UniProtKB/TrEMBL annotation:
Keywords: Isoprene biosynthesis, Lyase, Metal-binding. The record marks H36, T135 as: Transition state stabilizer. The lineage of its organism: Bacteria, Pseudomonadati, Pseudomonadota, Betaproteobacteria, Rhodocyclales. The keyword Lyase applies. Its cofactor is a divalent metal cation. Belongs to the IspF family. PANTHER family: 2-C-METHYL-D-ERYTHRITOL 2,4-CYCLODIPHOSPHATE SYNTHASE, CHLOROPLASTIC. 4-CDP-2-C-methyl-D-erythritol 2-phosphate binds at D10, V11, H12, H36, S37, D58, I59, G60, F63, P64, D65, T66, D67, R144. Binds 1 divalent metal cation per subunit. This is 2-C-methyl-D-erythritol 2,4-cyclodiphosphate synthase. Involved in the biosynthesis of isopentenyl diphosphate (IPP) and dimethylallyl diphosphate (DMAPP), two major building blocks of isoprenoid compounds. Catalyzes the conversion of 4-diphosphocytidyl-2-C-methyl-D-erythritol 2-phosphate (CDP-ME2P) to 2-C-methyl-D-erythritol 2,4-cyclodiphosphate (ME-CPP) with a corresponding release of cytidine 5-monophosphate (CMP). Residues 3-156 form the 2-C-methyl-D-erythritol 2,4-cyclodiphosphate synthase domain. Its EC number is 4.6.1.12.
Length: 160
């Protein structure tokens, strides 16, 4: 079978003194996401979805958070590395659909820039990438603005 789907999820805590980076876009906000890398939850979810689609495990297996090489890493670099791992096995991404769950900030104004980054890193057209924002209706830790969550689904294909 030369067509696969993959699913990815990530969540990072919001803290003061960190940049908020989502989809490779730095967003002006009083808090940012905490992590070993730049903590870009959206790109981590997409990376996991890609790896999952071709049974290559997960982001932590390929880019461990115990490895100093990834301290403060740009998650776009990790995403492109995952795309390269898929390419080695003949797979390429077709489309991505993702949801960011963030009580704040409003993400819709930043979606086009995020889409452009993800499309460039995956080597696909911008109309093959969709990024949605949702609040958590003020419920739970997401609703209290303690964290931002990302969910992603990808389709990949292999020639032949
Ligand atoms: N962080 C967010 C949250 C939501 N949006 C936009 O608002 C719409 C309504 O969100 P609800 O959670 O109230 O259903 C949503 O469809 C998005 O267009 C956003 O941009 N950023
Ligand atoms: C990206 C990595 C590696 O720097 O670290 P974090 O930024 O902490 O992100 P996470 O989504 O917890 O898992 C993957 C890690 O291996």
């Amino acid at each position: 079978m030369n067509i696969r789907v993959g699913q990815g999820y990530d969540v990072h805590k919001l803290v003061e003194g960190r940049k908020l980076i989502l989809g490779g876009v730095e967003i002006d906000h009083p808090t940012g996401l905490l992590g070993h890398s730049d903590a870009d939850a959206l790109l981590h979810a997409i990376t996991d979805a890609l790896l999952g689609a071709v049974a290559l495990g997960d982001i932590g297996r390929h880019f461990p958070d115990t490895d100093p090489r990834y301290a403060g890493a740009d998650s776009r670099v990790l995403l492109r590395a995952a795309v390269a791992l898929l390419a080695e096995k003949g797979w390429r991404p077709v489309n991505v659909d993702a949801t960011l769950i963030a009580q704040k900030p409003k993400l819709a104004p930043h979606a086009p820039a995020m889409v452009a980054n993800v499309a460039a890193d995956l080597g696909i057209a911008t109309d093959c990438v969709n990024i949605k924002g949702k609040t958590n209706e003020k419920l739970g830790y997401l609703g209290r603005e303690e964290a931002i969550e990302a969910q992603a689904i990808v389709l990949v294909v292999r020639a032949g």
